[in-house]
Design a protein that fits this description.
The chain contains 1 helix and 36 strands. The longest helix has 4 residues. The N and C termini lie close together (11 Å). It comes from Trypanosoma cruzi marinkellei. InterPro entries: DGF-1_N. Pfam families: DGF-1_N.
């Protein structure tokens, strides 16, 4: 399965807003990505300051040849960009990657804040090529609060993250993680650009990935990320309208598509209540205004 938020624009009126708020209950995770699945947040624009871009209220779990990719997004001031509020688990040939993002004003606390710890088993967490503009000090790119309880063949790689075009950002990572801090002049590290489980090689100059069988796209992800919907109106997408009431995607739906839609109220996706072995939710070139947020529940 794949869940992708690609190429959208968010206009948030309240600096306390969160764009993607992943809840969960006391008996569940905020986000669980399993069995050759991927969550891809790519190429989105946030035009105003917010509290957080992606907030996992409870635990994050990425397991069994799966990936979470946060790539090529542009934003302004925030407290955090990506936050997890409970232990994170990246297990069995899986990948958490944050790369190529631009913060036009550095987050005041941290770009990626893992609270309290991340547990890695045969998997990799990569933070690379992110750019920060700051007039107030040196940003913290990665902050992890506590030691891990499980580091079985796991790796953390931080590569070529810059502030005002120069290297020298901060990392607050307990020594037990033995994180690899890579400079911009070092050769490409495969795990910064390519999903390691489905990549055979990465070129040393441009970090171009060569995929093994089962790898898809430039990064060799475990599942193909859908292309943006066509612009000829031949599909079943909702297009070019404004919505000022809450949208709830749940019972009976298996495919939902919105293109160029302006949301003035929350968009709620209840994955567990959707039907079908493949569940496709597409938001492309959409705009969220006021305090409207995207909520994903039950996956």
């Amino acid at each position: 399965s794949v869940f992708a938020v690609v190429g959208n624009t968010f206009h948030m009126d309240d600096v306390g807003s969160t764009l993607i708020h992943l809840e969960g209950s006391s008996q569940s995770l905020s986000l669980s990505v399993l069995n050759n699945s991927a969550v891809v947040i790519r190429g989105n624009l946030v035009t105003r300051p917010v509290h957080c871009f992606m907030y996992c209220f409870l635990a994050l779990s990425v397991e069994s040849w799966s990936a979470v990719v946060f790539q090529g997004n542009e934003m302004h001031r925030s407290l955090f960009v990506f936050f997890t509020g409970r232990s994170s688990y990246i297990y069995y040939n899986s990948w958490l990657q944050l790369s190529g993002n631009l913060c036009r004003e550095s987050p005041s606390e941290a770009f990626l804040f893992i609270n309290p710890e991340v547990n890695l088993r045969d998997s990799t967490m990569s933070v690379s090529g992110n750019q920060f503009i700051s007039s107030t000090g040196t940003p913290t790119v990665l902050r992890i609060s506590s030691d891990s309880r499980d580091l079985t063949n796991g790796a953390i790689v931080a590569a070529c993250n810059t502030v005002n075009g120069e290297e020298g950002v901060n990392y607050r990572i307990p020594s037990v993680y033995n994180a690899a801090i890579v400079t911009c002049s070092d050769p490409c590290i495969l795990a910064t650009s390519c999903f390691p489980a489905y990549t055979t090689t990465a070129s040393s100059d441009g970090c171009a990935c060569t995929c093994a069988e089962g790898g898809h796209g430039d990064a060799c992800l475990p599942v193909a990320v859908p292309e943006p919907p066509s612009t000829d109106g031949a599909d079943l997408c909702v297009r070019g309208v404004s919505v000022d009431v809450e949208v709830n995607v749940s019972f009976g739906a298996s495919v939902v598509c919105y293109v160029g839609v302006t949301f003035a109220a929350d968009f709620v996706v209840e994955m567990e209540l959707m039907t079908g072995s493949v569940r496709n939710v597409t938001l492309a070139n959409c705009t969220f205004v006021g305090r409207a947020s995207l909520y994903v529940v039950g996956w």
